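USER:
Working in pairs, take the chain set out below, taking as long as you need, and write a paragraph about the fold.
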Amino acid sequence: MTDLNALLGSGGPSAAGRPASPAQQQSTAGFTADFNTFLTLLTTQLRSQDPLNPIESTEFVSQLASFSAVEQQVQTNRFLGQMLEAMTVGGPEALGQWLGREVRAPAPVAFSGAPVTVFPEAPPSLATSAVLVARDASGAVVGETPVDLGAKSVVWEGVGSNGAPLASGLYTLSMRYGLPDAETVSGDVEVFSSVVEARRDEGRVLLTLAGGAVIEADAVTGVRAAGAAAAPAQPRPAAPEPEAPTVTDPDG
């Protein structure tokens, strides 16, 4: 027969070695209370029966069958909870499918000196200008780059406000849109990053990206194979060429 301690342990690890979800713990606790009540009633009945008129064997077998049914119900409920969790957040095989992929999401950029293609969200309808703002790990603004309003993608060169290249590291990018009356509004920026780890945490799937940033899988808006070509990006505006001097013919 199933070990009751393993079967009824509240808050312990599930059969798959993962912590039980809150829904599983609540459901198991309810069945555990009913199961313990049934055991208490059965053992009390056995201790209190009249030795000269013991319980009928058929009735006792019926009660044992009920005991087994309750036990199986507890197991079934636990297995259903595990199946629901697997369908909701995926099993180990599903987690493994994230590894090595590049995901698109609002996340810090792991800058290593090479230009990075980023994807601004759509600007507000009243926006009159757009600036790509870069912040370092401390949250300080280290660079601002004007971009075309409504650009689907932008190449971030990793240049600071002083025109010098920024050091390698994690940078958070966002949009600042100018509105009438000198008001501004911020917008998110998405970027493709490689997934180096996928794990579950309290019913959520957490993805660790190259560079160390951690995001929830629900934040992902796109997935592509590692090394896939990025969408066409907005090139950095070229400096205007100086106009040639106008020569006037004095005899003309």
Summary: Confidence is low (pLDDT under 50) at residues 1-21, 231-239.
